[in-house]
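Hi Q.,

Before the meeting this afternoon, I wanted you to have the DOR prediction in hand. No need to reply - just skim if you have a minute. The sequence and ligand are here:
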Amino acid sequence: MSILIKNAQIIDSVKDFQGTWDVLIRDGEIAEIGRNLDCNIDQVIDAKGLAVLPGFVDMHCHLREPGLEYKETVASGSAAAARGGYTTICCMPNTRPVIDSEESLSMLTDIIKRDALVNVFPIAAISVNQKGEALTDMVRLKECGAVAFSDDGQPVYDSGLMESALEKAKQHELLLIDHCEAQELVKGGVINQGEKSAELGLQGISNLSEELPIERDVKLADKTDSRVHIAHVSTAGAVDIIRQAKVRGIKVTCEATPHHIALSEVLIKPGYTDCKVNPPLRSDRDREAVKAGLIDGTIDVIATDHAPHHEEDKGEDFYKAAFGISGIETAFSVCYTELAASGLLSMKELVCRMSLTPSRILGIDKGRLDVGKAADLTIVDLNKTVIVDKGNFVSKGKNTPFHGRSYKGEVIYTIVKGEIVFKKEEKQ
Ligand code: DOR
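Predicted structure with the ligand bound:
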């Protein structure tokens, strides 16, 4: 299979490409980038007015399989990723069973081989059954294909266990993705603690419940000289702790989600549980601090934390509703609008945070648009305005607070290893 993309603007985070270019894809790789390429090929894509980017890499999403297929599957979640412009995604292990053993990991890798539309790398648990009591055999799990380790959805509560995990990570070059949440401070909270929780009379989740464990784990990373990646940073204080840690040379990286970049608690109203997410949508001040962290490089990565849920798991009761936002299909438009179209980040920098930096942290050869690399790329229309319609989601999870909102930038094609895995349907 060969594809020739004609007349495209190319945005790579390393190389500068001025003007428009043709990209030749052959045998799953980028074979040539040049001008007026003309050769014998199977398919031509006229990309006049469009931009070609390295496919996005999501180091944090939930595919719910095995066990929770009514919420999402590898097939539906990876198709949603393709629609969102993602060519590589890493799925969290909080499934049923938890991905904490060779058996469960091999069950998942078989499903991925059979059903995945994009590259899917599994993340295995740090602790057995994510219970925070005993470490999994992370070294063996890495040999069997786990790209990173996380108890996401749950914190590693025991500091001693976290210290041991970090020591292992240092010894064996493992990546730990750290869900930081002091549940004894959360006390059953459901939205951010502040004006909104007071107004609605709902139990709030304090900023400190996120910041204390980040402080702890940054210190443990320092002590063990290990690296740690902090998931879904959402408060001004968290950004500050990580900024200071980086200045001190501690090997900490972190991510922010599109919803913490674009939304705040202001949006929350009674019964609107599509806004319920963990960590919660914070104050506007926190949201500004997250954006400032992206601008100054404290926040390395944009990760979706795509957390699809079934309607029945949401409902209108904030105390009963599941935490999570189905976000992989809206991530690019939201981040392009909030960060690049608004002039806060250049397109090169945005693409870096969505493709190259996560690849580097994960240690995978993705996130570049260059000759000889896998043809994993995304073609976008930066001039198109879209109105988010959850009814059009490919994901089984329609739980989005972005529904009805208008954003700039639309994914037109997604190509994985030289195969078109998503093409936007043209309206009649
Ligand atoms: O909102 C969330 N949903 N945050 C998490 O940490 C877990 C996730 C889920 O699994 O639904």
